[in-house]
Fold this sequence. Notes:
Layout: H1 5-11, H2 25-36, E1 47-52, H3 55-61, E2 77-83, H4 91-108, E3 112-117, H5 129-137, E4 144-152
Antiparallel strand pairs: 1-2, 2-4, 3-4
Amino acid sequence: MDKDLNKLLFERHSIRRYTDQEISPDTIKQILEAGLLAPSSKSARPWQFVVVEDKAMLQALSQCKPFGAKPLAGASLAIAICADPEKSDAWIEDCAVAATLIHVQAAALGVGSCWIQLRGRDNEAGEPAQDTVKSLLGIPDAMQVPVILSLGISAEQRKPVDPDKLMWEKVHIGAWTLGQE
Length: 181
Ligand SMILES: Cc1cc2nc3c(=O)[nH]c(=O)nc-3n(C[C@H](O)[C@H](O)[C@H](O)COP(=O)(O)O)c2cc1C
């Protein structure tokens, strides 16, 4: 499925419920290509991607924080985005860009996905949610895992964004416009 990017951006949504249909290996490959093609500060490419298809592991990952991680339980696939902070001082931005490109590429290929925030989030025990994910996936201690994406064929019907609802008041032309924020 090849879509006009502007149309795709209006249609894109976070998808949290998925059908049982598997994602084809070729589609998974293209989704991962988007991560590997992501721009990064000084081209340091500090990221690593851990791809998870095992259902029991997806279920376990969905427990990594009390709220907002449930989409992982019903996902066909998860991609944990890891980075070594020693490799770049812009690792957070680099991971966010990679996660965004993966999310948008997935949408372009007819695959729904959702960003599951780990950085700054705690598990049930009040410890970093990342530690749960690192321990489940054997990710080395030195790595950070700011985000994990859940992916699958969408079981949701979402409407495209209405162009009239875009918040143009957030755009300041030439300089900051007082009273516009
Ligand atoms: C930095 C970031 C963190 C997010 N964390 C979560 C999360 O932990 N769980 C979740 O279900 N959705 C999460 N989301 C998805 C947002 O809730 C979603 O993008 C927002 O509600 C707008 O909906 P839309 O993506 O359908 O336009 C996150 C999105 C971003 C960009």
